[in-house]
Amino acid sequence: MIGKPDFPEWKAVAAFYTAVHLIERLRSSFNEHSQNHEERFAFFRKRPQPFSAIYPICRILYDASILARYQTKNQFDRAFPDMIVETVLIGTHLNRINSFVDNHFTP
Amino acid sequence: MLTNIETRRPARIRFKDGQVVVCPEDQDVFLLSAENAIDACREAVRRDERMHHFKESLLRPLVNWAEQHPRRVESMYLAEANTEHLTAYVLTHTERYDFDLAEELAALDLSPGRAGRPISVHQVPRSDDTDLSHFFDPERALQIYG
Question: With a threshold of 0.90, does the pTM exceed it?
Fold first, then answer.
């Protein structure tokens, strides 16, 4: 679904929950798991660089997923126009989290 | 239009001369929300000290930040949340999501003294038909800016 051209709002939701699974994979290497999103984000917030650099990205993906679910489609499209979901949320932010986790396991 | 908000607006509080002013008719709502915030803080201190901590450590930095961004931030709300953490919503002036503002909000979370604070801030781009009741219960929320 994430590769198809339509439904950017659901791509944003899928992107966020993909990030959730990536973060949980990362936390598992510290023998840690999250009970909720705030615990998940605190993992990055309470750590120094390079971990804390991921925190703003998590928040942006979380914001987008909330707006996708609680705003109308038209409102979401105005908030994230011009393929921003594909290029920025997925192409930049989600990929950065993916690379960060990959590098953690295979530096 | 903020139809649901106009029906029953969140309680308003104002910072003035270092004090938090609560609109008298909404004080019950404020105290209720404050209690949840106190629980979220999980501080083993007396009630007055916890209230002071809530106002100065949690609310003040958020309000100060909003006051520094009047051209981008229209209003800010503190929603009632569970006992683990609080949730705030920043309503912006534009319909487009402001990535720079999101980075600044995250930086605020990462600033010294804020790390670990149990509060989550979300950005809501404004549009003519924004309905904040989709995000939180206006009757149990505090409008802390705007």
Answer: no
